[in-house]
Amino acid sequence: MYIHREGHLILLTVILVLVVLNLVLNHFWGQNKAFMYVAYVVSAIIFLMFAQFFRNPTRNTVINPKHVIAPADGKIVIIEEVEEPEYFKGRRLQVSIFMSPINVHVNRNPVSGTVSYFKYHPGDYLVAWHPKSSTLNERTTVVVKNEAGTEVLFRQIAGALARRIRWYVKEGDPVKQGEEFGFIKFGSRIDVYLPPGTPVDVAIGQKVTGGETVLAHFN
């Protein structure tokens, strides 16, 4: 496990702020050993809270062109057939993963293939479980066509706390299952859209591991 590059500058800033704050506290209240002990403990907790947001554990992705791998850690909150209006403009099977602030925030490619579509949408910051968050919130849409010609759409969605979406792909890029395609700072949600009738291997409320858990499979 290591710290993701998205967290390097933030963690450095947190360290500098905490060091300066503790130097100031020590200058004025250094004689109060109990107070300073509490200050040091609180500072360590604050740093660890930020550090856990940006942890990036190694994941063992078993490459399989018939599998759709979870693009993020979190909990399955939606499995239903819906109308996808942006790209497919038709019915698709939606599988959504809610990422809490304590989950790993790295986003990974659910399938291998070529990016056939990408778009960033500025928007609002409704809570991630709001029914309209997938169409009104800040978000990205990525579509990857696999070797069999099947297209899978996955969408990063910002939330009330997650206000920084990062992506590392563009149209025409080849991508590999399990590799990073983006990062959402402080959680939120990822929607995956599959062809109707695709067999699903997860259930509502199930916790999944990005890069490892099989969400669904193609016949």
Short précis:
The chain has 219 residues and is an alpha+beta fold. Helix content is 21%, strand content 35%.
Give an overview in words.
- With 219 residues, the chain is α+β, with helices and mostly antiparallel strands.
- It is built from three helices and 15 strands.
- A hairpin with a 5-residue loop joins strand 4 (74-84) and strand 5.
- The longest helix has 22 residues, at 8-29.
- The radius of gyration is 20 Å and the shape is elongated.
- 33% of the residues are buried.
- The model has no long low-confidence stretch (mean pLDDT 89).
In the CATH hierarchy, the architecture of the largest domain is Distorted Sandwich
Q: Strand order, biggest sheet?
A: 11-7-8-9-13-5-4-14
Radius of gyration: 20 Å
Give the CATH topology of the largest domain.
Answer: Glucose Permease (Domain IIA)
Task: Supply the CATH class of the largest domain.
Answer: Mainly Beta
Q: Helix count?
A: 3
Helix content: 10-25%
Q: How large is the share of residues in beta strands?
A: 35-45%
How is the main sheet built? 8 strands, antiparallel
Structural class estimated from helices and strands: alpha+beta
E-strand count: 15
What is the total number of structural domains?
Answer: 2
Overall mean pLDDT: 89
Spans of at least 5 consecutive residues whose pLDDT stays below 50 are none
In N-to-C order, the SSE pattern is: EHHEEEEEEHEEEEEEEE
CATH superfamily of the largest domain: Glucose Permease (Domain IIA)
Approximate shape: elongated
CA(first)-CA(last) distance: 35 Å
